Amino acid sequence: MSFEGDIYKQSVYREPAPIRDHDNPFQSMVERFDIAAKILELDPGFYEYLVTPSRVHITAIPVTMDDGRIKVFEGYRVIHNEVLGPSKGGIRYAPDVNLDEVKALAAWMTWKCAVVNVPFGGAKGGIICNPRDMSPGEIERMTRRYTANMMDVFGPERDIPAPDMNTNEQTMAWIMDTYSMHVHRTENAVVTGKPILLGGSHGRREATGRGVMTCTLAAMERLGMRPAQSTVAVQGFGNVGSIAAQLLAEQGARIVAVSDVSGGYYNPNGLDVTAMMEYAESHGRSLEGYPNAEPVTNEELLTLDVDVLVPAAKEDQITARNADKIKAKIIAEGANGPTTPKADDILRSNGALVIPDILANAGGVTVSYFEWVQDRQGYFWTLDRVNRRLDRLMRNAFNHVYETADQHDVTMRIGAYVLAVQKVAYALRMRGIYA
Ligand code: NAD
Question: Atom of ligand 1 at shortest distance to CA of 208?
Fold first, then answer.
């Protein structure tokens, strides 16, 4: 039979057409993965296996809108890899969700779980929608139908979603309830980031920002910097950015600028982060109109003369266009993929220490893992226990990445990839390829 050759030729996953012509997040992931693969002298077959998403699900989600019209949304779930365990990853709702982005985010989850040593593979999901223009009822119906369409994908032993941009505890509760209705029992381990009463974990909501803080402190120690003498700018004031800002302020750092979609807010004497969180909470989760600060643009915020910069909004914020203007000594990536590969090179030559996303924002998935463990045991931990275990895992991961980077004389980002790819490749070798 002659078709065998063709099958093998097509075995590397390729998109039918490029989705974006600028820095594509999946390509950004592959560029870093390539460097790690070279350092590790990864077998070409393993390379192909590890770069290829294991499953890509695309689903149409019909929703009856409040005015009676039916609107069909497009939803995705990409399972990148399941070698270390069931896949895990957030779901985002946004108008610019696209398959390339979801694929990149799914792959980052694989590496992130490996970096912090939690027994999960990587996945990510998303729906193209504008939740700001939708009523809670419309969002609930869309979430429930997406979950129903994904019944064969999700599961506590298969694939476990979590919140991401524009999804939250409520979204997770709807997913858990819909899944539970289908399996005829309450199955709370199917999602993480749930409300505490439904099997959520103490500390999960703050976990990503807390991990950013822990990594930033660890980096400061390495560089001989003191939190109380440091200034910080944070891009993005949602779950990750606001908590990271608040916890760094608690450590004595001066938060001089934060931003959200409404723009940037600057005060050289230090912003009152808690007051800003309260303001955002009572103004539709927006800082628009916040009084005690000077306005700056998001672009200006990134290039302020600060010690620490925390990009905690979205991808592709630090690029070849602005990287040489960045003055921060430490860049702690709260967001996924905020720095492009070209910007990485510029930042490195300027001496900035970048704590890469797959390490810096791994606190969320770490406490998600704790939540899943607690749900499966039916035994729930105190906040103190969660935070102590999180801090320990994040510190260990930071040190491991820092030392790997040092050993290979590469950036912490490449160090993190080397560590992660090595672990997943080892697990794959031990498991072998199922015939
Ligand atoms: P969120 O929706 O709570 O907050 C996002 C924030 O970014 C909002 O304040 C929004 O106004 C702001 N923003 C959006 N576009 C912006 C722009 N162009 N300039 C400035 N600000 C902008 O989302 P989140 O959960 O905080 O996630 C933020 C990032 O962190 C995402 O990249 C996400 O993938 C990543 N992340 C989140 C978690 C988590 O546990 N929530 C875990 C790991 C990584």
Answer: 40
- Given a cut of 60, is residue 343 above it in pLDDT? yes
**Residue 294 alpha carbon to ligand 1 centre in Å:** 22
Q: What is the average per-residue pLDDT within 374-398?
A: 98
Tokens standing for 133?
A: 């223009």
Which pair of structure tokens corresponds to residue 339? 């720095």
Its sign, for the CA torsion 89, 120, 193, 361, is negative
CA angle 19, 34, 422 (to 5 degrees): 125
- Nearest by Cα to 258 from 228, 318, 301: 301
- Beta strand 121-128 with 87-94 is parallel
User: CA 404, CA 409: separation in Å to the nearest integer?
Assistant: 8
Distance 271 CA to ligand 1 centre (A): 20
Contact residues of ligand 1, CB 6 A cut-off: 163-166, 208, 235-241, 259-261, 298, 312-314, 334-336, 361, 364
Q: Specify whether the CB–CB gap between 172 and 161 falls below 8 A.
A: yes
Q: At what angle do helices 412-431 and 44-51 cross, to 10 degrees?
A: 100
Task: Tell me the per-residue pLDDT of 357-366, one tens digit each, with 9 for 90 and over.
Answer: 999 999 999 9
Q: What is the DSSP string of 222-263?
A: HHT--GGG-EEEEE--SHHHHHHHHHHHHTT-EEEEEEETTE
pLDDT category at 23 given cuts 50, 70, 90 is: low
pLDDT per position as a tens digit, 177-225: 999 999 999 999 999 999 999 999 999 999 999 999 999 999 999 999 9
